[in-house]
Fold this sequence. Notes:
By secondary structure, the chain is an alpha/beta fold. The protein has helices at residues 6-22, 40-47, 74-86, 99-102, 122-132, 157-160, 164-174, and strands at residues 29-34, 51-57, 92-95, 111-116, 136-144, 180-181, 187-190. It has a single domain (6-190), classed as Rossmann fold (3-Layer(aba) Sandwich), CATH 3.40.50.150.
Amino acid sequence: xxxxxxxxxxxxxxxxxxxDEYLKGKxxxxxxxxxxxxxxxxxxxxxxxxxxxxxxxDPWQMGYDPKDCCAGNSIVFAEIFFDFKHFMNPIIKKVxxxxxxxxxxxxxxxxxxxxxxGDHRYEAAKRDLNNYVPKVxxxxxxSGHDYVDPNDPTIDAKCFKRVFGVKKAVDEYFKTPxxxxxxxFSWVQxxx
Length: 192
Ligand SMILES: C[S@@+](CC[C@H](N)C(=O)[O-])C[C@H]1O[C@@H](n2cnc3c(N)ncnc32)[C@H](O)[C@@H]1O
């Protein structure tokens, strides 16, 4: 069974570009991934060798956003895939919860890296930024997926409409554009 939706699959190599540029050579990082689904991006992050601990926060629950293709029945299998791939890995700490429920488990300025790819609706994306950016240490990496510009003429609006809230939330939060974006629509900022 193929659980990865086509646009993401085609773009996985560009997530690898981000990993190579920002994680290669780093060691003992404490990271958080919000939205792990079947564990594909998790695998890439972990293979970098940069992490001592990577918290993977995801409720693996259907129906969080009717427009999101990851929110259907496939989420049940996605969790099984995630567990199968990662349950033996002591670096990965699976946190089966909504990101907003577990934010208080993390201390401010204690996290080296965050990748946000959970609920893509504007309010949810803004909430993840408000909740989790304070958890990242100064100099730490704040990143995520789906920084898609609705005005980009090359974007298939039908495909990407579901994630249009992310760019608005990221731009509003940081007030400056990401320091780098990638072809898979990953984005990066460094915590000041
Ligand atoms: C697009 S998928 C993540 C894909 C994964 N990062 C990858 O690239 O392979 C979005 C995931 O976010 C999760 N999600 C939805 N709402 C969430 C929330 N409030 N907190 C954490 N995760 C959430 C969904 O269950 C789903 O697995």
